[in-house]
Amino acid sequence: MELWFTEKHTEHVKFSIQVDKQLYSGQSEFQRIDIFDSPEFGKFLTLDGYMMLTEKDEFIYHEMIVHVPMAVHPLAKRVLVIGGGDGGAVRELTRYLGIERIDLVEIDRQVVDVCRKYLPQTAGRLDDPRVSIHYEDGLKFVRAEENVYDLIIVDSTDPFGPGEGLFTKEFYGNCFKALKEDGLMVNQQESPFYPVDAIAMQRAHKRIVDSFPVSRVYQAHIPTYPSGHWLFGFASKKYHPTEDFDASAWMKLGLKTRYYNPKIHIGAFALPNYVKTLLEEVEPGR
Amino acid sequence: MELWFTEKHTEHVKFSIQVDKQLYSGQSEFQRIDIFDSPEFGKFLTLDGYMMLTEKDEFIYHEMIVHVPMAVHPLAKRVLVIGGGDGGAVRELTRYLGIERIDLVEIDRQVVDVCRKYLPQTAGRLDDPRVSIHYEDGLKFVRAEENVYDLIIVDSTDPFGPGEGLFTKEFYGNCFKALKEDGLMVNQQESPFYPVDAIAMQRAHKRIVDSFPVSRVYQAHIPTYPSGHWLFGFASKKYHPTEDFDASAWMKLGLKTRYYNPKIHIGAFALPNYVKTLLEEVEPGR
Amino acid sequence: MELWFTEKHTEHVKFSIQVDKQLYSGQSEFQRIDIFDSPEFGKFLTLDGYMMLTEKDEFIYHEMIVHVPMAVHPLAKRVLVIGGGDGGAVRELTRYLGIERIDLVEIDRQVVDVCRKYLPQTAGRLDDPRVSIHYEDGLKFVRAEENVYDLIIVDSTDPFGPGEGLFTKEFYGNCFKALKEDGLMVNQQESPFYPVDAIAMQRAHKRIVDSFPVSRVYQAHIPTYPSGHWLFGFASKKYHPTEDFDASAWMKLGLKTRYYNPKIHIGAFALPNYVKTLLEEVEPGR
Amino acid sequence: MELWFTEKHTEHVKFSIQVDKQLYSGQSEFQRIDIFDSPEFGKFLTLDGYMMLTEKDEFIYHEMIVHVPMAVHPLAKRVLVIGGGDGGAVRELTRYLGIERIDLVEIDRQVVDVCRKYLPQTAGRLDDPRVSIHYEDGLKFVRAEENVYDLIIVDSTDPFGPGEGLFTKEFYGNCFKALKEDGLMVNQQESPFYPVDAIAMQRAHKRIVDSFPVSRVYQAHIPTYPSGHWLFGFASKKYHPTEDFDASAWMKLGLKTRYYNPKIHIGAFALPNYVKTLLEEVEPGR
């Protein structure tokens, strides 16, 4: 069966995955949601035709968006995840016994329902008793919170459509306010390679730099995202992502990971020169 | 014009680049050689339909295959490049004034001729007076050399077709013999992500581990190679890739790079757990 | 959503249809069955990844496989349809009030069930009281019949897989035997354009010529089949397809059609020279 | 080498041909011109990325656009071909010894030059002494002529870009004027199947009906054109396309053809009902 899902990484670059079956297709209030099964990547989720995650490589994204901040913050107890209705970030968070409460704010209930049914690999820990799911706009949710969270994870879609508000200056300012005095925020921050993505990445970085005293960017190899070179933002009120990172403390937790490890933690912040240049272009005063 | 070059990264994954024009197509004694022009990646070279390099991202590959070993070996004077008829590795090497002689061994003269004509960006330094080009089989060339080189760069194609011999145990053993007592060898070593590539990577690693006392693997983000997560082997008689790396000495050289920098050097050797596991599977005794 | 169904018309030619949703996918005892919905062609059915019919152009195939023989045979009362589990040929047949009984022999019950559910446009007349469905191998079914049918319609898949037996000499011989003394057989007979299809078409023609005194080929424009130029075989014990065709009798029936009409009937038997040559190559003695 | 030329037949349908090599690519004053070599269709010509002809199936188009009118007009001596810089229509015309002069009006000299070099199969008879090539706008050329031609063949590209003027009412009116009192005009008239093409086809038909007393449409199976079902317009001052067709006279000429023959001539005017309906929609008064 020659059935192929194609994502245009740019107008001139296509990435195509052979599909065995389409397991689900629905239109929610916010977006089109599809689940496919594929011989190479297992099941995968798309929103409005954009790849969100595959069973084969989601571990990279979710480990890197969770363990990097958790290995820096020694005592994170209360965590907010915005977006991330697939449950992958929550799954990694629930492995930390020290976390007391996880608020998951996902605007689209249908995403959660679909992932519970078709992607237990990511959604399987959404029933952990520490997790509260809020079907709300993340932008509004965070506006109402102050000095509450140790860690905010912005696990958004791309900066257009439903995810657009999660890339605004107002949003980052509200996240700052919602964090405790030693709180951290991490966010998925697009790719540096293709120009359209790089511009979105720069814009997000500029806004975060303007909002937080500490702001760094780190990277991972995620084969199913455009260019395979994906960035995350690390913003902090107090802790430095590598200087305040206690590798041995994290190792003592005994968490088994498939991508993340303490050396990767340091290496992820070692950016190529061309990426550093892109970041510096929007860092006034540095 | 909807004209697309497609590379199957696996049987079930296609990466497609829109082509504006095919600038050259020829059949040499060894392989089919094509040069295309594309809106996203500029000109690119394929051999037997496999992507070799694009103008847009070749800097990543060539910087990483050259500057990593050159920043470890303090006094490399004589360098052998096997494969690499595009001239990109030679270009980076010629920037080191301490290098006295570069032997480039490329089996296919037509590759060099075509790259000189269509890809001056990579081939432009092949006329440096320190460079000698040998149109020979690299496997045979290196068999005849002993205790000659400070550095051997194995800039091969994939481990089938003309490049196959450059992945054999005999070849690595001859490289060992051709190196001086503190010599280094680096090689392109495929990707860890897709199973077929990972198996080739493991096989190469096993053979290098058997041949050299020091053998490590490092990585880079190369968007146009399968999965975007590409590996290099670092094999050495004496020097350790990170412990014997003198960052400040390299910085004093004042070389301007777009990907490589001393932090990337360290970070490139920080491998994800799943890659470490693949490597350890073929490292008996470790 | 960039989701495309592709059929390779040859190794070097692809025909791709954008899919909105996959409505059904199942594996029967005989083959994989899929139903897709598409913006251009509406719903379409594939078996083992090969296009069978689309809502948009199935009328051409089904009108041409039914009305051509029905307009030649003045008093057809008993009709056998072999294959055709989608019900499209039956639908056209049921419009003739003179037909008393239609036997539909479809090897794969699941095809019928799926078409009833998803393709009422073709399957909607399968419940006509004159229709009897037999879930059997057409080859075996016809072996047991003698001097029974006025018309046999061989509405098979391609000559490999489950449909293979319906292209054998034995099968055509049994059809001859199962027909009354003035009976007709029509069959779908592939395309003359691409070499692989043309060879299959010639092979079928040769076998039919060997089995029936009258054997002609006619054509239609079916855009979703390879090359768009599709052939049907017309085999007969007595009637000639154009000389015994009574246009005014057919017009009096008052059937409304979208493709077929009496001029098309004649025109369909006017074959291009290159097709005539292909046919004559396998017509010994002519 | 996975290199594919794709033509979008509609927004939702793609037809893709594997390319071995791009033999030529150039930008003329009017359009982009490309010649490709392909394993399935041999060499093919595209203008602005649209398929014009392939070596494998151009015979169908060129035979049908030439022999149909030539078999109707008993004594055509002077012929005008507008467009058709590939030379295929001229090639067929030169086979008629009764033709005394052929004016080929092609706006783009570069098309002729490229076809002479790369497509001798079609362009090989452009040097016939009866042929005069005029590198002019066909719309302007025909404006200046009156009562000159026995036959005008409008071998245009699609009704947008350089070919747009050849689908206007003014143009058809001028063709009428340029024809002798028993003159004929044939034109390529798009496809009836896909809605966008069908609308262009209807518009052209309406304008021709308004300009000529006799106006009919005929069809051919051309696999590399959208849907494979292609139409031609037959417009005439006096002769009827089938009633004034003298099959035996044409047969006596002894021309060897691969698609056209007298039965095809009649059959080509037998249109499917849905096509007749499309035509009648724009034929006021009928």
From TrEMBL, chains A, B, C, D:
Its EC number is 2.5.1.16. Pathway: Amine and polyamine biosynthesis; spermidine biosynthesis; spermidine from putrescine: step 1/1. GO terms for molecular function: spermidine synthase activity. PROSITE patterns: PABS_1 (PS01330), PABS_2 (PS51006). Residues 2-237 form the PABS domain. It catalyses: S-adenosyl 3-(methylsulfanyl)propylamine + putrescine = S-methyl-5'-thioadenosine + spermidine + H(+). SUPFAM superfamilies: S-adenosyl-L-methionine-dependent methyltransferases. Homodimer or homotetramer. This is Polyamine aminopropyltransferase.
